[in-house]
Amino acid sequence: MKANFSASLSAVVLLICFASCVNERKPQDKKNEFITALMNKMSVEEKIAQLNLVTPSAGTGPFKTKRVMEKLKEGSAGNILSVMGSVERIHKTASLADSTRLKIPFFMALDIIHGYKTIFPIPLGLSCSWDTVLIEKTARIAAIEGTAMGYNQTYSPMVDITRDPRWGRVMEGAGEDPYLGSLVARAVVKGYQGDDLTDETSMMACVKHFGLYGASEAGRDYNTTDMSRLTMFQSYLPPYKAAIDAGAGSIMSSFNDIDGIPATANKWLLTDLLRDKWGFTGFVVSDYNCVQELIAHGIAGDYKDAVKKAIDAGLDMDMASEGYSTFLKELLDEGEIKIEEIDQACRRVLEGKYDLGLFEDPYKNYDPEKPAKVTLTDENKEVAKLAVCKSIVLLKNDNNTLPLSKNAKIALIGPSVNDQFEMFSMWSQTGDKQSVITIFDGIQKLNEKVVCADGTFFTDDPDYLKNYGRYEDAEQLQMEKDAIQIAQKSDVIVAVLGESIAMSGEAKSMTDISLPGCQVDLLKKLKATGKPVVLVLLNGRPLTLGDNLQYADAVLEAWRPGTMAGAGLADVLFGNYNPSGKLTMTFPRSLGQIPIYYNHKNTGRPYTEGEKSAFKSRYLDEKNDPLFPFGYGLSYTTFDYSAISLSDTLIAGENNNLVVSVEVSNVGEYAGEETVQLYLNDPVASVVRPVKELKKYHKVFLEPGETQRINFKISPDDLKFYNSNLQWDWESGKFIVYVGTDSEEVKTASFVWKK
Ligand code: BGC
């Protein structure tokens, strides 16, 4: 009887379970049902509005949308970029959605690139920390500050691989390496989007610029790119893929063409690769005015044709050109495109809004008091200060000029030492200038004996200076004189030189990336005083410093540091923080070496410096090697590396691992952090392989006298590359492993691995 009762009880339980499983809808089904029901209510015009992104700002292109607010209100535009101002104004703009028939919330997009109000160092600088936990934190803070203002999408991260510092936009990315670039891409996406996109502090990431924009020919912005599929897959595509795998909800098509077809109309890129191969389910927005620009590229006869080509290729949203809102309906009526194309793009955009939770709460818990509570908090500033410290790269330190003594009389000289705005970059338009700690203030807080002077203009280019409304030779001479006067009375000179804010960023390509003549003049005169000179560089790209390095005893690369500029820099100058940054872009000796990057292929005639033979791959008038290689960066202490030990030198099979290890010792006087880097080379393969590729790295903090063994686990995955059939695979044979402090100063060992 008892047994019978328990049997029937379990049957009932099973039945209940089954019934509830049948009733329980998966989140994906719920989403599909919701979107389908919504789309069933939408007219074609309403669907097209979802694909239209307008902007009230001057923007970065020739097209300026008219009647922006009216369009949002009447429902002919469903998204807006760069509405700025007070939280109330932004909210009022977002609320215009309520006056449309279906009240579909807008994407409120903005370029939040390296912080919203709290500005962090530029992404190139941040990447030099090689600290993905810190980088993720900076993105999280940017998301918290940005969402509090009402933004729900940011056009970041820029993950373009960059090998040409003439291109002004190298400042926006993580440099030249696909492995590190992928880790940074993932960290930034995670930071913006958090664990749950519907959270009120989560902002949708938009990965850009898809694709290959970093390879703009000759470093000229908006220019064409041309590369082999092998290079594309091996070196340029991985960071986009990593960002997508990390869950980025949107991606931006780039300005350039790929294999002759502009990215914005490139079906291979936007559909075959992105959707069919990589499985991306978010939406693609064009870059600024790209749809219209298909005409100038020469692949569309007129505007309507451009729109057809873009939607056919798989472009979902049109930024600022308003081609979609003008021509999609006409194209549909004429039978030139199918309704399924509009539906598909509209569905993707609506899904993005759904994923963000906007249909539940369009304003993500709007509270006009929130920005004041969450922006520029002490905690945010602390992270920003640490980010400044960690992004700084010590390039030179003769005679231990650095760190400075806190009692030294310091002459602080440079055109931006007292300038808050100059600590920002082209992409810090939302930053709070008043909160910036200038270099002078930062140093003065730790050493009251500092005095300062401008010393020079940024440049002697009269055209450039006209924009600043000043240029007089006499004025320049007077500035130099004043600076030298204070320099003579000092114990040490800190010269802050490099680029002004207006010299890097979008549309800031340069054919000369050396220090401007007037700055070099000043530097020479400062050196001639006989006082030690510390050169602090503020810039958005690697510079060709060449012979000018001799006029400085120590050099710190401090990028464009942001809100906590002076505080972070002062900590590094006085040794409160021992610099640990490592370059993520090679510094060339001269312009003629560009493009120059560490993971280049070998040639049939590789040249070794000093060799006599003439018919080798080399320059007559310049060395092959860079001024500072990828991964380079000194410390106030010295790290010693033991020889490499390998767990095995002959390994067989796919399921095996190899442990590569070194002992790293701090043999100097300061505690410090070292980034131990591991590179691999496959010397004999079916395709030519790079001379070295970064495969792993490990950050270790060591007290003076401390030693740690660092172990790296290598698996066959680390040996894989794209072969000539574009298959991602590895080949048996010998491999060379390098471990060291940068991509050139390494210990070497080798092993054989057979399939
Ligand atoms: C840039 C993008 C940016 C967009 C919107 C374009 O000119 O290339 O990176 O997101 O403008 O501001």
Automatic annotation (TrEMBL):
Subcellular location: Periplasm
Keyword Phosphoprotein: no
Any single GO CC term annotated in Swiss-Prot or TrEMBL for this entry: periplasmic space
Pfam families, per the entry: Fn3-like, Glyco_hydro_3, Glyco_hydro_3_C
Enzyme Commission code(s) on record: 3.2.1.21
Keywords in alphabetical order: Glycosidase, Hydrolase, Periplasm, Signal
InterPro entries: Cellulose_Degrad_GH3, Fn3-like, GH, Glyco_hydro_3_C, Glyco_hydro_3_C_sf, Glyco_hydro_3_N, Glyco_hydro_3_N_sf, Ig-like_fold
Reaction(s) catalysed by this chain's protein: Hydrolysis of terminal, non-reducing beta-D-glucosyl residues with release of beta-D-glucose
Domain annotation Fibronectin type III-like: ranges: 674-743
Protein name per the record: Periplasmic beta-glucosidase
